[in-house]
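In response to a reviewer's request, we include the raw inputs and outputs for one of the modeled complexes. The three entities were modeled together in a single run.
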Amino acid sequence: MTYSARRTRWLRALTAAALVLFVLALLMDFLYVGPEKEQGEAQRIFYVHLGSFLGAFISFGVSVLTGVMYLLRRDARWDVLSLSGVEMGLGFSGITILTGMAWAKPIWQTWWTWEPRLTSVAIMWLAYAAYMMLRAGIEDPEQRQRFAAVYSVLAFGSVVFTIIIVRVRPDTIHPVIAGPTQADPTGSFEVTGRIRDTLLFNLFVFAVITVALLWHRVRLENLARLVEQRKLQALTGHWGD
Amino acid sequence: MSAGPRKLRPLMPTWRAVLAIAWKDVRAELRGRELVSAMLLFTLITVLVFSLALELDANARRDAAAGVLWVTVAFAGILGLGRSLSAEYDRGSLDALLLAPIARSALFFGKLVGNLLFVLITALLLLVLLSVLFNLALVQPLLVLVVLLGCIGFTTSGTLIASMSVHARAREALLPVLLLPVALPVLIAAVRASGAIINDLPSDDWLPWLELLAAADVLFLAAAVALFDYVVEE
Amino acid sequence: MGDYAEYMILGYALMGAVLGGMVARLVWRWRALRRELARIEQIEAEERGENAP
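The model returned the following structure tokens for the whole complex.
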């Protein structure tokens, strides 16, 4: 497996940019924007909470689009991208859930509450964990890729559900940032001025980090499949023919 | 002699193929496959365990009934779906059905109708059982409608996912893990709608859930028809 | 330090741990695969050497 030197240079540049941007975003979260008047320091969690959800959304979006592409084209490269999307999405949505809990404890007085949005995001995480179980359970590679692609489409339903649920059930206490809602959320605040600047910058930075991590994950998977193939060749004693 | 290109057409109209496959499952059941009886016995035991574990008074029973109903339907359904598909897989009869000159979607709907019938029988008998044991008037048209819609959504996603999970190692363990997160939106909507109806709440409290349930059914059916071809191809 | 600073630190620490874990896993798996590939190539080279006339 050889990648063109130019693409590798691009990946290195992107990785370096992601690192620098991440440090800048942290500086902005802590220094540029002040503590919110009611929620104090805890409000700063919101920037990475939303940023990581964007990362999860991008990753899962990539996984469903490439899953459909795999079903249409049957090219294993689409499957690599789909798997990478799910793995990175699990990580990012894990961050969303954990940072949300750290925020909810002081603001809602509880780590976790069974309200629509928290429930649906937990379901989303479980659906993608199940995707990994499905992959692990199927032996035949072609069948594994095909089933995984089918399941990636089904699992994306839970992402859509997470996003629309606060529109269907406006009795959520979870604050809604974008779009209209009749909800009476607990822990809302105005997204204006420096808070808005910081939020937008964090969203941009998390998008860059997501793309960089996805790219690295794809390269890792390609290497893993190459090693698998070479091992098989070595075991059966056929090489070079 | 017919001129022009001859298209390979299924020999049997789709709806007849669907009915034939569903009827095959019903006959297998009548001959003693004992799938429905296993589901019913499981249902009975589950309800008994629930009432023992929860030790409910009248008000608590009213509040818990919707949850008990759908948890039991979900697990009994998983039991039935797993058996129904793995029976086909183990006998190799799924491959034989795939060779039959019928559309793939007919095969899916055939299995779906059969499974739905079994799940519905279980769910409706469960309604009667809960009415008796929990002393509630559960057999009412609105609740039967919710049960019907909930079972359609659950069985549609279940039939699709069970046709994948039968190929896996540890398929009995994998089916609930794969199915529950996908079917949970349907189950949540069904629980909320049933709960509101059992508590005689105004229609504002259950109509949105009923609409969500109907929308989810349509989406699941469309997704399952589109995806089933990719699941069964060999 | 303002109000709820401990929860803010907890939140950022959790984020750092998960993000760091994701990166560490990528690096760790990459290195392990590289090592494995090198070993396979070494074994192949040895066998070729033995089979050579």
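As requested, we also summarize the result in words. Chain C touches chain A through 28 residues (CB under 8 Å). The mean pLDDT of chain C is 89.
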